[in-house]
Amino acid sequence: MNEFKLIERYFNWACYHSVSLGVGDDCAIIDATPNTQIVTSVDTLIEGVHFPKNTSAADIAYKALAVNLSDLAAMGATPKYFTLALTLPELNEAWLSEFSDALKQLAAEYQLDLIGGDTTKGALSITINIIGEVETGKALLRSGAEVDDLIYVSNTLGDAAYAWQQIEQGGTPSDFCLERFNRPTARVGLAQALVGMANACIDLSDGLEQDLSHILKHSKVGATINIDAIPLSDPVSVYINTTQDWCIALAGGDDYELCFTVPKTYVEALKTIEKNLGIALTKIGVITKDLGLDIKGLNKTCASYQHF
């Protein structure tokens, strides 16, 4: 099987949106929606760095697309299209079939069109470029946080990092934490509900401490958060109570939850969003005029994930 037959068999699907030209030519041609802005992001996942060598093809596909969806979610955008660059050490049709099925299934959940890409031979890696749309001037940014805004995070933090730590140490993560690591949930619906309400937003890929600091830097403000307010799942709570290692939740990364700031006037509205979407939203602190991030209750320094 050559590259073109591989693409035709595993990565050529019908489109949900208006695509003048999709898979099969030098470039895709898509039709822009009036009164919207294009939002785009790209992420690469590499074997041994972002997922263990024994990870299933289905889990690799799911995570590769989910982390890109999370980037769009952080902007309050609607996912529309994506391209895939797939590097494979060998042509394994069973692996490709599993990967393709999982990718197609998650794409279908968001009516997301695969419109092109590339395949090469080499060490296993997956790069996805995702494209979405947001109403003009309505995108959620990192730069809008204001003094006295409340800081919220969605769901629980530290689950994926705890799973990865256990894997690296030769242990066996709980099914819950492993699922959170392999199959993060992109908070697309939550972010869209926050449009017009949140002043700033970011997805937590590299850890709360580092990612919240991006909001502070871009907004030219500071923040105070309370360590005891950080929402934890039962497995992570037990681990932290035993070890006092809060860094797993503060700086572990791979959460792909949202961290956002809102004026106090929206507290009741957030409760309605929680109920409607079934997602826990937890207030962890407040934006301040004093620059920097003050973490109350933390008596050590945490090292957030660094790409280099």
Question: How would you portray this structure in words?
Answer:
The chain is an alpha+beta fold. It has two domains: 3-135, PurM-like, N-terminal domain (60s Ribosomal Protein L30, Chain: A); 150-296, PurM-like C-terminal domain (Phosphoribosyl-aminoimidazole Synthetase, Chain A, domain 2), CATH 3.90.650. It contains ten helices and twelve strands. The protein has helices at residues 3-10, 57-74, 93-109, 159-168, 175-182, 188-194, 208-219, 234-243, 247-250, 267-277; strands at residues 19-21, 29-30, 36-46, 78-88, 113-121, 125-135, 150-154, 200-203, 222-226, 258-262, 281-288, 292-296. The strands form three sheets. It has a six-stranded mixed β-sheet with strand order 8-10-7-11-9-12, sandwiched between helices. Strand 4 (78-88), helix 3 and strand 5 form a beta-alpha-beta unit. Helix 2 (57-74) packs parallel to helix 3 (93-109) and helix 4 (159-168) packs across helix 5. The chain starts with a helix and ends in a 12-residue tail after the last strand.
What is shown here, in short?
The chain is of the alpha+beta class. The chain contains 10 helices and 12 strands. It has helices spanning 3-10, 57-74, 93-109, 159-168, 175-182, 188-194, 208-219, 234-243, 247-250, 267-277, and strands at 19-21, 29-30, 36-46, 78-88, 113-121, 125-135, 150-154, 200-203, 222-226, 258-262, 281-288, 292-296.
Features:
Phosphoribosyl-aminoimidazole Synthetase, Chain A, domain 2; 308 residues; 60s Ribosomal Protein L30, Chain: A; six-stranded mixed sheet; alpha+beta; 10 helices
How much of the sequence lies in strands comes to 25-35%
Q: Please tell me the total number of domains.
A: 2
Distance between the termini: 37 Å
Instruction: Quote the average pLDDT.
Output: 91
Please provide the count of β strands.
12
Number of helices: 10
Low-confidence stretches: none
What is the radius of gyration computed over CA atoms, rounded to a whole number of angstroms?
20 Å
Write down the secondary-structure element order: HEEEHEHEEEHHHEHEHHEHEE
- CATH fold node name of the largest domain: Phosphoribosyl-aminoimidazole Synthetase, Chain A, domain 2
> What's the arrangement of strands in the largest beta sheet?
8-10-7-11-9-12
Helix-residue proportion = 25-40%
* Rough outline: globular
Going by CATH, the homologous superfamily of the largest domain would be PurM-like C-terminal domain
Provide the CATH top-level class of the largest domain.
Alpha Beta
Could you say what the CATH architecture of the largest domain is? Alpha-Beta Complex
Largest sheet: 6 strands, mixed
Structural class: alpha+beta
